[in-house]
Amino acid sequence: MCGIAGIFNYKNTRPVTMESLKTMNRELVHRGPDDEGFYIGGNIGLAFRRLSIIDLDTGNQPIHNEDKSIWVVFNGEIYNYVELKETLEKQGHSFYTRSDTEVIVHLYEEYGADFPLALNGMYAIALWDDHAKTLLLIRDRPGIKPLYYAETADGLMFASEIKALLSGGVGRVPDYEAVSQYLSYGYVPSPLTGFSAIRKLDAGHMLICSNKGCHKKEYWDMPNISFSKETLSEDELTGLFIDELKMVMHRQTRSDVPVGIFLSGGIDSSLIASVAAEKCNLKLNAFTVGFEETSYNELDKAKIVAGRLGLSLHEVILSERDIIGEIENIMSFLDEPLFDYSAIPVYFVSKLARSMVKTVVGGEGGDELFGGYQTHYLYKVSEWYRRIPQSLRNGIKGAVDRLPESHNYLSMPYKLKRFTYGAEYAYDEGHYRWKVLFDAEEKAKLLNPDFVNKLTDLESFYAMENHFKKAAEKGYGIQDQLMYVDFKTFLQDDPLQKTDKMSMANSLEVRVPLLDNAIIDFSRKVPLNKKIKGVQTKYLLRKALAKFQPHDIAFGKKRGFTPPMAMWIKNGLKDYMLTSLSRESLSKLEFLNHDYVKSIISDHLEGRAENSRLIWALIALVNWHRNYVFK
Question: N or C: which end of the chain has fewer CB within 10 A?
Fold first, then answer.
């Protein structure tokens, strides 16, 4: 787990300087505080920051092949490196380290640009082929590890974080199309970033650069659906899944340092902890976050799970006071706009974990692969709802809109209002509208007219629409389309980005077993009625968890690390919120209408609406603009 950066002046032969590489690399120290390394070969330069996890003595990068014609820096872990190394040695390759990194250069020698297909892991790779004078940038299949790049007057710059590119001289001009999409989604959909000159490399893609230019290639997409497990009974399917996860846990806990686990008390992390303890005999230190507000707190569930498994559970109880002391630091790591306020507890639990371990396993991916969101079945309810005469639906919506607001976690008034809003649309656009923060109507009020006139599409649905079209062309049914779209959009740009940025802010590596190649492939063979049964989400994962934990743990409501932001911004974070969104603060973002922002705040504070998501999205945008654009 590390940070990488580099420069390739492919448009000319201008030499890369050590000073320029070091300037970029300094911005990545938090990702790798243990060591650094560099390679310069004329107009190519690679930089690396190391967090030592595997091969503590000889594993520093860059790593090269036998004749030093191929060099690589990479951020992440290759879980099947032991098996790959054995095969490569039989093919005649010799190794000078025990690290997982070295298999990359020898795989490239064997398979060329197709080598990522052999990798099982999380990675952002930069590989230089000196013979071909070609640079390859590669991002892992789901997008666990980030990789950003920018075209320059001389060629290309790349890095694990945007701040390294900015320090290297890349322009800070904002991309207002990306800002508009952020206001809709709460994240910037790939490949946009918020900056006109900077792009994210999409998950499952590589960028190939030579003196002829750069081109992007998708080397991996979701395997086709086979449903080959549909003849199995529930118990047989559950047993096979547990066996698969057991093998994954053995792979993903290979480490030369102790490994811990994030344990929220939810389905995914509880299942991973249970399989690790009961099937792999791994008694991992567990780390969790609690809140004083009952409807948001899963600490009791985490304690039950840890107690049954005999795990040491380390906890942090968050209050507004804790957040006020760290919020500016937390925001400083968000170098592209990201609304997700569960980043706050992830930051604190990462800080807690890092005081004891260097790496943990987490639970991301289960929702997207196994049907974890209510929107994965609500389209069926909305199809029934739209059979009701329009006049009657209008009356229902009016009554729902008049329901008193609640700041409890996913309260019934909140869910009913979101449902009646999105249920008027077909499944694809309804999926977007159930998730949207500011829709076109609200953005027209929020943004000044000059800004609106520059935008391609105020609604921003097209960022999802392209993936829906691709899934439909593959012949996927509606539910598979919905999960595919969430995997290709939300997963890589929100939860995975949030986890990477907050854990790396504390120099902590997070591995994600449910996004192992084997689990992704397994998920494509599972019948839909074993993923979502009626209105029961993640049915297979819950059945698996029930083999280890009580029924109310396995089949309870999901919460995760979501904080009670709706309450906090009315109380302990109120002053911070009002200062962040004051007229003076917003004056630096000329495209926002302060009067409309003020009305959003007033409606929330006076109980007329639950606007915490909108308010925090604006706070995150203002902080990003101040920290990285207006600098």
Answer: C
Contact predicate 159/5, CB 8 Å: yes
Strand ranges across the sheet with 148-151: 35-40, 44-50, 2-8, 156-159, 148-151, 198-200
Tell me the Ramachandran region of residue 428: left when phi exceeds 0, alpha when psi lies from -120 to 50, beta otherwise.
alpha
In this predicted structure, what is the pLDDT of residue 67?
93
pLDDT at 560: 62
One-letter identity of residue 402: R
pLDDT of 214 strictly over 90: yes
In this predicted model, what pLDDT tens digit does every residue of 525-534 receive, in sequence order?
A: 999 999 999 8
DSSP class of residue 226 equals: -
Query: What does each C-alpha distance from 397 to 390, 417, 594, 604 come to in angstroms?
Result: 10, 8, 29, 20
Q: How far are the Cα atoms of 81, 201, 220 from residue 193, in angstroms, in the given order?
A: 32, 10, 22
Nearest to 564 by CA among 340, 409, 417: 409
**Rounded Cα distance, 270 and 226, in Å:** 28
Q: Please name each of the domains of the chain with its CATH number.
A: 2-218 (3.60.20.10), 223-386+423-563 (3.40.50.620)
Classify residue 138 by its DSSP letter: E
Residue 120 CA to residue 144 CA, distance in Å, equals: 12
Residue carrying structure tokens 């997963």: 491
Least confident of 128-132, 186-190, 294-298: 294-298
CB 25 within 8 A of CB 126: no
Burial class (CB in 10 A: 0-12, 13-18, 19+), 475: exposed
Phi, psi of 463 (to 5 degrees): -65, -35
Rounded to an integer, what distance in angstroms lies between the CA atom of residue 617 and that of residue 597? Answer: 11
CB-CB contact of 510 with 349 (8 Å) = no
Q: Tens digits of per-residue pLDDT, 368-390?
A: 999 999 999 999 999 998 999 89
- Average the pLDDT over each of 316-325, 455-464, 470-479 and give the range with the smallest value: 455-464
Three-state SS letters, 549-614: CCHHHHCCCCCCCCCCHHHHCCCCCHHHHHHHCCHHHHCCCCCECHHHHHHHHHHHHCCCCCCHHH
Helix 427-435 and helix 375-385, axial crossing angle in degrees, nearest 10: 120
Enzyme catalytic residues: 2
Res 599: pLDDT? 96
pLDDT at 399 over 80: yes
The vertex-73 CA angle with 71 and 79, nearest 5°, equals: 110
Q: Is the pLDDT at 571 greater than 80, yes or no?
A: yes
d(CA 598, CA 11): 49
